[in-house]
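Dear Dr. L.,

I hope this message finds you well. Following up on our conversation about the binding site, I have prepared a predicted three-dimensional model of the protein together with LJ64HWYM. For your records, I am including the exact sequence and ligand specification that went into the calculation, followed by the structure tokens. Please feel free to forward this to your student if that is useful.
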Amino acid sequence: MRYISTRGAAAPLEFEDVLLEGLARDGGLYVPESWPTISPDEIAAMADWPYEKVAQRIMQPFVPAELAEALPGIIEKAYGTFRSDAVTPMISLGGIQDGLHLMELFHGPTLAFKDVAMQVLGGLFEHVLAKRDERVTIIGATSGDTGSAAIEAVRGRERARIFILHPHGRTSDVQRKQMTTVDAPNVFNIALEGTFDDCQNLLKAMFNDETFRDRVSMSGVNSINWARLMPQIVYYFIAALKLHGPDAATKPTSFSVPTGNFGDIYAGYAAAKMGLPVERLVIASNQNDILTRVMNTGEHTLGPVAKTIAPSMDIQISSNFERLMFDMLGRDGGAVAQKMSQLKDDGTFTLPEASLDTVRGLFGAHRADEQETLDAMKRAHDVTGELLDPHTAIGVVAALADMQSHPSESSTPMVVLGTAHPAKFPAAVERATGQTPPLPEFLGDLYEREERYDVLPNDLAAVQAYVAERV
Ligand SMILES: Cc1ncc(COP(=O)(O)O)c(C=O)c1O
Ligand SMILES: N[C@@H](CCOP(=O)(O)O)C(=O)O
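The resulting structure of the complex is given below.
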């Protein structure tokens, strides 16, 4: 399997180089040159397989043969850290709406869906770096959850050091403490004076500075790295198999995905491309609704980032949308590069109707404001007894809106991806329900642990100097 850049000007790479490179050298994102498919018979046969075996089958075509042999061990170890044998258990939200389900992706060590991929990624890095006898400097940007999941996956590993940029004062206290209380010599936390978009812009600028990138052997763990997305494809198959059994090969499933950087929902698109019958992929946005606007109007115009009760989705520049655009524009890297350069220069671009039509049947997009989010959290608690985190609640609002606007598809089950544990956002949960979600026991003393981080200005040179001094 080879990977090509969405901007068409970087050399195609094999999986292991994509893993270590992170972002393509032309500024684009790597995507598989073609999509491997899983046949209906194979999907049906997976009905009684454990999560780990399905994961192995889905990921195996994306990696070279030698790595495919190591995958079972890497996967086994990754999901051994989860608090649920099912890895991503599913519950019914039928009390709210017939056919509504919730897949809980937050049973990993840092209580968000990021662990599902990051635990595998840690093992992949270890395997490939040991084989090549190399070391890397991982630099990541986080709006709150990627950071702690990445740190947890990399802490104490000999061949990697990790620098995580988070937006100063814009994460929840639990999210910040999960990152900054980790005491490991290879972990560095930077609180950037800016938004998540500023963190991600600096990250991309560091990737685009070839001298710096090569000097520190830079790599990445954000979803701009294809290897981060690959393990996220698996749970779309798992959800369909849980709902339909062997009929998952023919009966469709819909998904509502709380969306920020467009990575998680792009993994759902990949599952559909691989042969999973997916009826609807619903983009669920908070007030930072650039994706809802672009899908509904074709206009992709940046605005200021609003601070919301779902801070992990306080994002305007949704990097992985570029991967979908690549397909929407006929896999024409030059056309994508032109749109991205327009975005950089003017803060806006427009997508032609014809390209929107290529994905409109599959994708829906809805936005939830703060009150709708709080109301959904309260309703879920009142009706089902479940405490939802605000991001997941936005998924519920969007799911219900999409089900209402597509009544002809009402017999298709709708799965909301539960992206974070409610205890990561206690203030919002208390405001909505009056309940305080307890942290799991192993994080019981989180508030007493000592924090370590440095506050830096939103300045490329300052961040590069900070990293260079510590490498
Ligand atoms: C809790 C939570 N929900 C949803 C999202 C959005 O996911 P994505 O960026 O893959 O769209 C994020 C962060 O990205 C998150 O941390
Ligand atoms: N919400 C994310 C933002 C970064 O997303 P990623 O999936 O590209 O790593 C976060 O929690 O950091």
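In brief: The pocket of pyridoxal-5'-phosphate (ligand 1) is lined by residues 112, 144-145, 223, 258-264, 312-313, 391, 419-420 (CB under 6 Å).

With kind regards,
A. P.
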